[in-house]
């Protein structure tokens, strides 16, 4: 569930236009767009990220023209890499390390850390720290991708500017000893750059080239660049679309929504109103295995003896919360 607002009260969710209008009024109508970052803070653009993300997306657009020329195995391999990297985020950094919603034995933690490096969305420690801040201070200046600042900011714009000081301040106050106590997290953080180069770019490119003689050009742009760009944007939709579009059957007082399209793309992460209401639930959904490949994976790992202690919200708990704070939808 979201934490308290910056002033100690729960601030109702507003759309981007309302938020900009409110901040202009508070600042006296100065009109400086760089000061719309909250409390009059001037936003410092990280031009390196702007350039790199622009080049990455241009490369992805070019990659689309290569699809008809590629071998079917290459396209299937790219999709497999997408699923693998997605699990590194959803089952790994998110449900395991951020929320501790289940326990994983060492072989599974190593696998998820490797998959997380393929995802290239910051190392497990940093991802989990920022996600815990996001939950505790959701939709405030301490939220790294505060949806109250609009779709673009919550989707990708938050990567184009320096973090708001509140994000850094609140992040430093969190108890992260559980993350630092995990040797897998420490190892991945120490060697993150090396593992990212290997898992996100080198291995996805070399496998099609070596195994079924795909061209190195097609392998790189399809299995690395296009796959990586798509996986990033689908993950970002959880921060943007799933905080703006959909119903709120569990808590109508918070912005996260149930978004079926995000659920399909993000292998089970679009039940966002439920997740913010019951963040400890390993399934991140009331519906268990339905439309939730990440839950399938965790259940399979439990069946294999590699995962244990799955946490769940009980049916009476869910029913009572729906009746008390839900919007009446299902």
UniProtKB/TrEMBL annotation:
Cited CDD domains: Delta9-FADS-like
InterPro entries from the UniProt entry: Acyl-CoA_DS (IPR015876), FA_desaturase_dom (IPR005804), FADS-1_CS (IPR001522)
Ranges that cross the membrane: 45-65, 77-97, 191-211, 217-238
Cofactor dependency: Fe(2+)
Membrane topology (UniProt): Multi-pass membrane protein
Keyword Kinase: no
Compartments where located: Membrane
Top-level taxon in the UniProt lineage: Eukaryota
Pfam family, one: FA_desaturase
Keywords: Fatty acid biosynthesis, Fatty acid metabolism, Iron, Lipid biosynthesis, Lipid metabolism, Membrane, Metal-binding, Oxidoreductase, Transmembrane, Transmembrane helix
Occurrences of domain Fatty acid desaturase (ranges): 77-279
Family (UniProt): Belongs to the fatty acid desaturase type 1 family.
PANTHER family attached to this UniProt entry: ACYL-COA DESATURASE, STEAROYL-COA DESATURASE 5
Domain free text: The histidine box domains are involved in binding the catalytic metal ions.
Protein name: Fatty acid desaturase domain-containing protein
Organism: Felis catus (Cat)
């Amino acid at each position: 569930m979201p934490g308290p607002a910056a002033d100690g009260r729960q601030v109702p969710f507003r759309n981007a236009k309302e938020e900009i209008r409110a901040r202009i009024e508070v600042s006296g109508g100065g009109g400086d767009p760089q000061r719309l970052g909250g409390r009059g803070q001037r936003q410092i653009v990280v031009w390196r990220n702007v350039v790199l993300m622009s080049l990455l997306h241009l490369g992805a657009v070019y990659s689309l023209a290569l699809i008809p020329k590629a071998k079917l195995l290459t396209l299937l391999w790219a999709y497999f890499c997408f699923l693998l990297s997605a699990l590194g985020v959803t089952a790994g950094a998110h449900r395991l390390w951020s929320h501790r919603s289940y326990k994983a034995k060492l072989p599974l933690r190593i696998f998820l850390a490797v998959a997380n490096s393929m995802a290239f969305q910051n190392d497990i420690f940093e991802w989990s720290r920022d996600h815990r801040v996001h939950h505790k201070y959701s939709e405030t200046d301490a939220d790294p991708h505060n949806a109250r600042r609009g779709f673009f900011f919550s989707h990708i714009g938050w990567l184009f500017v320096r973090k708001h000081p509140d994000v850094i301040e609140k992040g430093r106050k969190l108890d992260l000893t559980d993350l630092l106590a995990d040797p897998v997290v420490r190892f991945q953080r120490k060697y993150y750059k090396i593992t990212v180069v290997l898992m996100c770019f080198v291995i996805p490119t070399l496998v099609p080239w070596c195994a079924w003689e795909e061209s190195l050009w097609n392998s790189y742009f399809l299995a690395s660049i296009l796959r990586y760009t798509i996986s990033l944007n689908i993950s970002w939709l959880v921060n943007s679309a799933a905080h703006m579009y959909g119903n709120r059957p569990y808590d109508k007082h918070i912005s996260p929504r149930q978004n079926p399209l995000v659920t399909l793309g993000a292998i089970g992460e679009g039940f966002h109103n439920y997740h913010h209401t019951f963040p400890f639930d390993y399934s991140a959904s009331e519906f268990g295995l339905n439309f939730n490949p990440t839950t399938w994976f965790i259940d399979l790992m439990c069946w294999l003896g590699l995962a244990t202690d799955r946490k769940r919200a009980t049916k009476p708990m869910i029913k009572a919360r729906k009746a008390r704070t839900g919007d009446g939808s299902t």
